[in-house]
Amino acid sequence: xxxxxxxxxxxxxxxxxxxxxxxxxxxxxxxxxxxxxxxxxxxxxxxxxxxxxxxxxxxxxxxxxxxxxxxxxxxxxxxxxxxxxxxxxxxxxxxxxxxxxxxxxxxxxxxxxxxxxxxxxxxxxxxxxxxxxxxxxxxxxxxxxxxxxxxxxxxxxxxxxxxxxxxxxxxxxxxxxxxxxxxxxxxxxxxxxxxxxxxxxxxxxxxxxxxxxxxxxxxxxxxxxxxxxxxxxxxxxxxxxxxxxxxxxxxxxxxxxxxxxxxxxxxxxxxxxxxxxxxxxxxxxxxxxxxxxxxxxxxxxxxxxxxxxxxxxxxxxxxxxxxxxxxxxxxxxxxxxxxxxxxxxxxxxxxxxxxxxxxxxxxxxxxxxxxxxxxxxxxxxxxxxxxxxxxxxxxxxxxxxxxxxxxxxxxxxxxxxxxxxxxxxxxxxxxxxxxxxxxxxxxxxxxxxxxxxxxxxxxxxxxxxxxxxxxxxxxxxxxxxxxxxxxxxxxxxxxxxxxx
Length: 500
Fold this sequence. Notes:
Layout: E1 9-11, E2 16-18, E3 31-35, E4 38-43, E5 52-55, H1 61-77, H2 87-103, H3 111-131, H4 136-156, H5 161-171, H6 207-218, H7 224-241, H8 251-262, H9 267-286, H10 313-324, H11 331-342, H12 346-350, E6 357-359, E7 365-369, E8 384-387, H13 397-406, H14 417-433, H15 443-454, H16 459-466, H17 471-477, H18 484-494
């Protein structure tokens, strides 16, 4: 069967693809339980007495259920959900995945998303290898699957040689030689294994392995939203380092990494990634995992200030005309609209739940931006209530509230930051930004600040709307605590009801 032509279904917000028509094993209902407070997942094919148990490595139920859902998807994809599967069956499945990976084309704009998918699968396979109760065929397939995903990532960088080599070996019906040589790093510790007549082999200490261990050690001190962003940044760094063994890295390697990252990113964005890199390497150095972290003065000192611009009122009008024309059930419509009329950050909007849509005694509807339930905020001043101005730029409060009431997800919009960021910024480029990289979704925040400043709104009110800690930030960077009813009056008087 030509698996490359099978329809795939994307689970938005998690960079996962599950090919439902490729699932040949029907599972009994997955069983979750806790062992010493840590959640475990047990899966069992229907009618089978054999089962597979994996630690989800968290004591938090919502996090465990999310991890469980995505992990089950990966296990199904690689047919590792069936403990009764023979090595031949698992090997044939790996061959199908390898051939499909090579045969599937990827649009240039989707390369990063596809890389994240492969990295997700590789990470899940490492989790399975580290915490699962494995049969011998499952263990071989898990290690080989991780290598396969590494080869798939290199294929996206224009180097398909490793993937071709694995396919050739699968076609020979043997075990690829790579399984008998240095395996994909499943932990940060050295793995030595002398074989008869051969010296011991130490697996490379990759940034991916280091970062995973760092995150697990610090997971309890990181909010889920911050953790998700950290994972994404770590994946970008790992992909750019291309499997570099950090035990032997040099200053030149990190300078080359910085040069590679800045080819497609602003210095300020690269500095953020370098900060994440530095934290992991400093931690690794302090724990004697590497001898030296060459991170001193690695950040850009010039050109790192934010250069984001504000959209003009004419451009804001174009954006809202487009948004108002989208269907009522479109998350993109309300993501753009909320940014325009409230100036909220993307992360703040995407974390909103139904409970965060409130109404004052005077009937003013507002969004409550808070850190309840582990939501992440940029600063403590970011907590605020921002009124929703009915009719501003044609915004329909009635239709928005209907959209919220009919939603079924845990958040109002139901999408993640990486997914939303890609699609919303792509939309803005097509509508008004063009090739101007300084005009992004975040520029809508600047636009509201600029409008408030031009209208002579006192800085304390703008601070209350934008959640900034000082007037300098509110008006110098973007354009107190003020009662939401007063903010409603300010916005109602300043936001135009007619599109520019």
